[in-house]
Design goal:
The protein contains 5 helices and 7 strands. By secondary structure, it is of the alpha+beta class. The protein has a single domain, classed as Gcn5-related N-acetyltransferase (GNAT) (Aminopeptidase). A hairpin with a 2-residue loop joins strand 2 (47-55) and strand 3. The radius of gyration is 15 Å and the shape is globular. InterPro entries: Acyl_CoA_acyltransferase, Bact_Acetyltransf, GNAT_dom. Residues 4-169 form the N-acetyltransferase domain. GO terms for molecular function: acyltransferase activity, transferring groups other than amino-acyl groups. Keywords: Acyltransferase, Transferase.
C-alpha cells in the first residue's frame, strides 16, 4: 500500500524540504548549484505552484512549476521544435525525493499533480535535466516526456553542465 500523499506546498514545509534537499545533494549532486540557501532555491519568486510529497506525516519530496520566459533555454528549444507560444508553457523544476524514500512512487505522484495543474490551465510542460541524473531521466521518459535536444546549463561560477530538454507529449 502506498501511503505517499501529495499536497500543495506550504510555508511550514520549507524547513523539512530544505533538509531533504541537502540529503539529495549529498547523494546525487542535485542541484548542481549547491545548497547554500536551500529554502530560497526550493521556493523561487517566479513559481506558479508547488507540491510536497508526504509520507508518515513528513515531507519527503517536492516539485514546482514556473511560467516560462523567452530567455529560458528549455523554452527556447521547445518553441523552436514545436512552434508553440512560450506564454502557454510551464517549466517543471525542483523535483526531488528523499533518498531514503525513493521507490514509493512519490516522484510520479508529484509529476501527476504538476501535470494536472498545467492541463487545467492549458499549459504545455517542459523541463531541463542534467545528463548525469539518470534516475530522473528514466522517470521522465516513463511518464511520456520526449527529449527535444541538449543544452549547456550554466551555473555556479560559470560552470556548464550538459543537460537535456524534455517536454510532456
Amino acid at each position: 500500500m502506498n501511503d505517499v500523499t501529495i499536497r500543495r506546498r506550504c510555508q511550514a514545509d520549507l524547513a523539512a524540504l530544505a533538509d531533504v534537499l541537502v540529503r539529495v545533494h549529498a547523494r546525487d549532486g542535485y542541484p548542481v548549484e549547491g545548497v547554500d540557501n536551500p529554502e530560497a532555491w526550493i521556493a523561487p519568486p517566479a513559481e506558479l505552484a508547488a507540491w510536497t510529497a508526504v509520507y508518515e506525516a513528513q515531507p519527503i519530496g517536492h516539485v514546482s512549476l514556473a511560467r516560462a520566459h523567452d530567455s529560458d533555454d528549455a523554452a527556447i528549444l521547445w518553441q523552436r521544435t514545436t512552434g508553440g507560444d512560450v506564454s502557454q508553457l510551464a517549466i517543471l523544476a525542483r523535483l526531488f525525493v528523499d533518498p531514503g524514500h525513493r521507490n514509493l512512487g512519490a516522484g510520479a505522484l508529484l509529476m501527476g499533480a504538476a501535470h494536472r495543474f498545467a492541463a487545467e490551465r492549458q499549459l504545455a510542460v517542459a523541463l531541463d535535466v542534467m545528463l548525469k541524473d539518470h534516475g530522473a531521466i528514466r522517470l521522465y521518459e516513463k511518464l511520456g516526456y520526449r527529449r527535444l535536444g541538449t543544452i549547456g546549463h550554466e551555473h555556479t561560477g560559470g560552470k556548464v553542465e550538459a543537460a537535456a530538454v524534455y517536454f510532456f507529449a
